Amino acid sequence: MNKQDLLALPSTNFIDDIIHKDLESGKYGLRVHTRFPPEPNGYLHIGHAKSICLNFGTATKYGGLCNLRFDDTNPSKEEQEFIDSIMESVNWLGFTWENRLYFASDYFEQLYEFAVQLIKKGKAYVCDLSQEEIRLYRGTPTIPGKLSPYAARSVEENLQLFTAMRNGEFADGSRVLRARIDMASSNFNMRDPVLYRIQRSTHPRTGDTWCIYPMYDYAHPLSDALEGITHSICTLEFENHRPLYDWCIENCDVPCLSQQIEFARLNITYTVMSKRKLRLLVEENFVNGWDDPRMPTLAGMRRRGYPPAAIRSFCEKIGVAKANSTVDFSLLEHCLRDELNISANRVMAVLQPLKIILTNWPQGKTEKLDAENNPEQPQNGSRELILGRELYIEQSDFMENPVKGFHRLYPGGEVRLKHAYIIRCEEVIKDEAGQITQLLCTYDPQTKSGEAGSGKKVKGTIHWLEAFSALPAQVRLYGQLFTKENPDDVAEGENFTDYLAQDSLIIPPSALVEASLADIAAGQTFQFLRHGYFAVDLDTKPGFPVFNRIVSLKDSWRKGLLPSQKG
Ligand code: ATP
Ligand code: MG
Fold first, then answer.
1. Residue nearest to atom 23 of ligand 1 (CA)
2. pLDDT per residue over 218-229, tens digit each?
3. Cα 235 to middle of ligand 1, angstroms
């Protein structure tokens, strides 16, 4: 694209505005180069999806590039498992870094050289204060900090000590390298921030080569600059780290003057989004791993069956702002339904079966019915259903003493079986304990769906399964993990885990699905009529499908996970 074409692109947010200005002024020529910089200390969550869509999306829009860079500067918390899962999630979401996969650890030698340069310029020094002393010396927002007694060390002494730090001559935590900036700065981050610490832990990529590791605030701007990143997009909490970001770029001899731009992080109701908290849920077995379908991780959403297109559409809808806010979970559900309504074929499943006998249906007779797969997609065709004398319907579709407005089945009442006939409940059979065990019904042969019938109309249509062909299945119904709208906001002495919902997973014990689902593959999605959208789980075995409910058809999870007689 030439300059004119680039400038003609619509600006959809304040980041676009900045890019337009930079294109106009030629600050980076016509280059737009972003990066997504995860720390491999956990799995990615839906908040990261916002950052991924923004970084990769912005680069694509302007014909630019986006790198995937792991910020692997803290080996004590970082693992290969996380690196692998992050790459998988970015790809799954639909983005590619092509050959631009980087690691901050690739730059350890270069970053060390920059530190040596800073020392030589008198802009960095080795400090022997303990962590606690550094904190005390740093002062408070109103009281200026006190200069470290070690700030006066000569360049030679600093060079010699820093080399000795690298060579492993000092104990962990005994010394740090600090920038010499301004102990009186109103910005805490500028009060001689730590650049390097001594920490003996084996790094997933550099092994035991290093026992000193650069701090994020130092490594990040310099990694950006080394990669030629033009717009380094990060979340708002880094806003007052920006002067330090700029300081690092200005004081080291780097090839690009990258600029940091902050945007508001994504928060969603009933969800926690910090990796630390998600990690705790996994480690303390509150959930079944990082890919538990209730987790807000991309791995969890993938397993649950969320289509990546729905997540991208969600990220587009929420937009990019400069002020923090919380998005209602129902917006994500809305995006899921929008996508699945088009992509998922309809089938029938009965979660809590109630047996029905059609007493006027001949013994042994079956009839084949034609059922459309997706009314939104006629080209998806139809499938065959079998109707017979014995059927199952949903327990909640019958009421012995119907409340006002109940339009489904009750003694003497009529209802249509989807794709089939109108039936009438003639008799209720109970066991000795008074529990309903089956219903005796009659069907009206003149009322076959899709055929010019008697013109008879009934108010309700219900789903059903033929008893002998119905397939047992495990159906996992998920609710919110938390009972509190903002689980991060807990009172003194409380824990966010105090608000974990007890019923966030319900598995009805005798669910049945259509015989057409005998041979399906993990990841496929369906609409179970009247129950919502479901995906085939990894645990599926031949002949025994396992489903995850992705989302119900209506915003109804607050009312309970199982179908109800109301509404
Ligand atoms: P967490 O706070 O969940 O532990 P983090 O910011 O430490 O996340 P990183 O791996 O450093 O996690 O994040 C990689 C990128 O994703 C960063 O640019 C970060 O700003 C962005 N990011 C993280 N959480 C969110 C969020 N909730 N909304 C938008 N962007 C986010
Ligand atoms: Mg981080």
1. 48
2. 999 999 999 999
3. 7
